[in-house]
Amino acid sequence: MKYSKNHTITCYEADANQLMRPTAMLDLMQEAANVNATTLGFGFDEMKETNIAWVLSRMYVRFDKLPAWRQDVKLETWHKGVAKLFYLRDFILSDTEGNAMIKATTSWLIIDMNTRRLIRNSDLASSPEKCTKEDVIAEPADKVVVPVDIKPELVRKHPVTWSEVDTMGHVNNVKYVVWAIDAVEQEVARERPLKELLVNYDAEVMPGDTVKIFRTRQDTEEGLVYYITGKVGDRQNFCVKLIF
């Protein structure tokens, strides 16, 4: 029931510090999830037959150590089953000696492709025999709560580009995190490694939208914490928590 893949970190997945970009990990995760779901019988093509599709709702990633450019790693993922509205999937990236480097848990929803409304208890993905009850991170990804005592700063207004739209016709989930990291001051992103990432996907962002990106920064015991939110009009479409 698990999917695993050996991988070597490429030049286009590395940053100026010659370490894997956090968003490169997210790219690997979404492709691994797609391949494993297909093997289990609820991939894109199987879902399309009944006009339903997966959408990522929440994600929590812990970066214990970023692999270096040219380093060999192993990615594993598995479907954990249903928890209330969500379908859970975990990921782990390890070095060649089996040491965990990056751990992640994700929460997915199923929607009707026409109405974009939630579908509950899909027979395709709810079968216990297709689940692996093993936790990389035991608790599902939580809701991001932005501090109310700090006024968010408008960083920029971002018009959605065609290259940011995926097979679902909306902005790909990794692009939200690209926007969030790009909203952090460059000296912070360059000099301080990202330790944790928590994302809530609240609403789709579509071609033609312009997203207002806001930043809230806090120095805490956890580290330097950023809350990056994106709005189209008055509606919040996503919220990202970054801990450096």
How many strand segments?
Answer: 11
Number of helices: 4
Topology-level CATH name of the largest domain:
Thiol Ester Dehydrase, Chain A
Q: How do the SSEs run, as a string of H and E?
A: EHHEEEEEEHHEEEE
- So what's the overall shape? globular
What portion of the residues fall into strands of 2 or more residues?
35-45%
- Biggest sheet architecture: 11 strands, antiparallel
Spans where pLDDT lies below 50 across 5 or more residues: none
What is the strand and helix layout of this fold?
Elements: E1 3-8, H1 22-40, H2 44-48, E2 52-63, E3 72-83, E4 86-95, E5 100-112, E6 118-119, E7 153-159, H3 173-182, H4 186-191, E8 196-201, E9 210-219, E10 224-232, E11 235-243
Antiparallel strand pairs: 1-3, 2-5, 2-8, 3-4, 4-5, 5-6, 7-9, 8-11, 9-10, 10-11
Short description:
Strands 1, 2, 3, 4, 5, 6, 7, 8, 9, 10 and 11 form an eleven-stranded antiparallel beta sheet that branches. The protein has 244 residues and is an alpha+beta fold. The chain has four helices and eleven strands.
Q: Care to describe what's here?
A:
- The chain folds into two domains: 128 residues, Thiol Ester Dehydrase, Chain A; 91 residues, Hotdog Thioesterase (Thiol Ester Dehydrase, Chain A, Roll).
- 33% of the residues are buried.
- It contains four helices and eleven strands; from the N terminus they run βααββββββααββββ.
- The two termini are 34 Å apart.
- Strands 1, 2, 3, 4, 5, 6, 7, 8, 9, 10 and 11 form an eleven-stranded antiparallel sheet that branches.
- It has 244 residues and is an alpha+beta fold.
- The protein is globular, with a radius of gyration of 18 Å.
- The longest helix has 19 residues.
